[in-house]
Amino acid sequence: MKTSYWLAAACLVASTSGFANGFKPIEIKDQELAELRGRYVMPGRIISFGVVMSSTWRNASGDMIGASTSMQIQSSTVKPQFYVSTYSHNGGDNSGSPRENGTGSVTGGANLTVTQGITQVTRAAGDGNSSNNNISIDVKEANTAPALAPSQGQALMAGQTITGSNAAGSVAVSATGGGVQMAITANNNQGSAMQQVAQGGLLQNTRLLGNSNMVSNLTQLNVVLNNNGPSAGALDCNLTQLNALRTLGY
Question: Domain limits of the chain?
Answer without folding.
Answer: 47-90+115-226
